[in-house]
Amino acid sequence: MSATQNLTYSIVQVVHNLGAVAAVGGSFAAVKSRSASTKKNVAWIALAGWVTQGASGAALGAVSFYFYGRFPDISGVALYALLLKMACAATGFVLMVAYLYRADEWPVKRIDWVCLASLALAVSAISAAAFLRWFS
Ligand code: HEM
Questions:
Q1: DSSP single-letter state for residue 104
Q2: Segment 2-50, tens digit of pLDDT
Q3: pLDDT at 120
Q4: What residues have CB less than 8 Å from 98, skipping those under 6 apart?
Q5: Ligand 1 probe mutation, 68, 74, 77, 85, most atoms within 8 A of CB
Q6: Which of 82, 99, 103, 105 has minimal CB crowding within 10 Å?
Q7: What pLDDT does residue 107 have?
Q8: 101 C-alpha vs ligand 1 centroid, how far in Å?
C-alpha cells in the first residue's frame, strides 16, 4: 500500500472510530440522563454518531473501490458482521430521529426504551466491528 492509500484509510478510520464513540457514548448518556432536556441533548450526539458511522463506513468501502477498482472480497462471518453493522446504523438512525422529532408526544417509558435500544445497537455494532476486522 502506498503512503497516500494508508493516509486516506487512516483519516476515514479516525472519523469512523470517533463516530463509534459518539454512537455508544451518546446512547449511554441518553440512557443515564434523568432530565428530559439533557437526554435530548445527548441523543443528538448519538444521532450524529449513527450518521457518521453510515457515511464513514460507506467511505471506507469507497476508498477501497477507488484504490483497487472493486470492493473488498468478504464472505461468511465478516459479511454477516458488516450487514449487522449496517442494520444497527440504519435502525439507530431511525430510532434517534423518531425520538428527537416526536419526543414531545411520547410517554417517558417509550423514550427510555428507545435510548436503551440505541445503546444495545451501538454495542452490537462495535462488537461486530471486531469480527469484521479479524474474519476479513
Ligand atoms: C453502515 C454502517 C457501517 C459500515 C459500512 C462499516 C464499515 C466498516 C469497515 C469497512 C471497517 C474496516 C474493517 C477492517 O479493517 O477490516 C470498519 C471498522 C470499524 N467499524 Fe464500522 N461500519 C459501519 C458501522 C459501524 C458502527 C455503527 C460502529 C460502532 C458503533 C462501527 C465501528 C467500527 C470500528 C470500531 C471499526 C474498527 C475495527 C478494527 O479495526 O478493529 N462501525 N467499519
A1: G
A2: 999 999 999 999 999 999 999 999 999 999 999 999 999 999 999 999 9
A3: 98
A4: 114
A5: 85
A6: 105
A7: 94
A8: 27
d(CA 12, CA 3): 14
Burial 44-81 (b: 16+ CB within 10 A, else e): ebbbbbbbbbbebbebbeebbeeeeeeeeeeeeebeeb
Instruction: From 136, 96, 116, select the one nearest 128 (Cα to Cα).
Output: 136
The C-alpha cell of 98 is what? 423518531
Q: Phi, psi (5° rounding) for residue 44?
A: -65, -35
pLDDT tens readout for residues 86-105: 999 999 999 999 999 998 89
Q: Which helix (H) or strand (E) holds 105?
A: none
